[in-house]
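[09:14] KT: can someone run the structure on this one? pasting the chain below
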Amino acid sequence: MSAKRLFSVLLMAVLLAGCGGPRAVLGLGVTTDKAASAAVVPVYVATTRARSDNLSLPYSAERSQTLNFAKLDIGIPRNHVPGDVEKTGRTPDPARHFVAQSYQQIASRKQFVTQLDAALAQRPPQEREIFIFVHGYNNNFADSVFRAAQIAHDYNVRALTLHYAWPSGGSLPLYVYDRDSTVVGRGGLAETIEIAAQTKANRVILVGHSMGAYVVMEALRELAQTGRRQALKRLGGVVLAAPDIDIDAFQSQVRDIGELPMPFAIVVSRRDRALSISRRIAGGHPRVGSGSDIALLQQKNITVLDASQVDGGSHNIFASSPTLIAFAGQSGLLRRLIEGGDASAGETLLADGGSAIEGAAALVVYLPSRILGGVALAGRR
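[09:31] RB: done, structure tokens below
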């Protein structure tokens, strides 16, 4: 495929996936009214991006062979719509845009663990958990940090937010650069998981989106293959959202990892156009996130959430769907389903691939093979 053709394909993928719009900037170094933000989400960061002197993006697209650490306080705007990341490529207005209110570099791994433990100690015992979020393709540093804060805020995540930022080029034509960066970034995520496991957190949850899901699987593989399974045992759950992973490569990764952390869940959509185009680039090989072989995933003890009929089923559905966000607030219903299929008859319906309520969107949950069948949850938009 020519470079021009590849660029055109990738441009279409991003536009179809709803990833267009301005490149985000953090807003650091700009005098703003912090009180204008509606809420503030502290985000701890471990990154294999290289440091930059540019305060609008203090970590660049260049690759670092060692982890860098930081903490940012991200302001959520008053006009925030759940599922959106209101951003600008110019000076952010905290009343209308996500903005970084503060930024602190953390010098070493030891100091990072100390700060994480101090933050955990300030929480009620039941909230002493760590949520690790790994971003996908075509993200600059501000894009991914804001997305981590948006998910934590909208889903009312009670855990401490720890964002792992791998060195995405943050540019449309750099798909191959990003794919290569996932290999560079896997060691940094493996170390980040070890750091979270070293803290006094009661539980560590790991979520990877799109190409970031490949980073997750490679990091789990590295931990397993290098005799560091103790860190894997500290994971209390893994979620891959729209994973941009070849299905054969995924099976190989699962074999190398051996026993997967449990629970393990994957969000798929047959209407994910970005993954359809990724499949074309890969010569027609299906992607895990397209839901082409749900039965195979069930056999590997994986829960599959089919979001094909949820709010358009787009590539970013896990983060942007009002329906999924609403479901998450229903007394932890999604969490109970992912962890063990525990849902009352009043909360579930037999899956038939369609909406159970007129005008509603349906999320179909396929439980691991030990529990036959699937259930469909319905919620009004």
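[09:33] KT: thanks! The chain has a mean pLDDT of 83.
[09:34] RB: yep, looked fine to me
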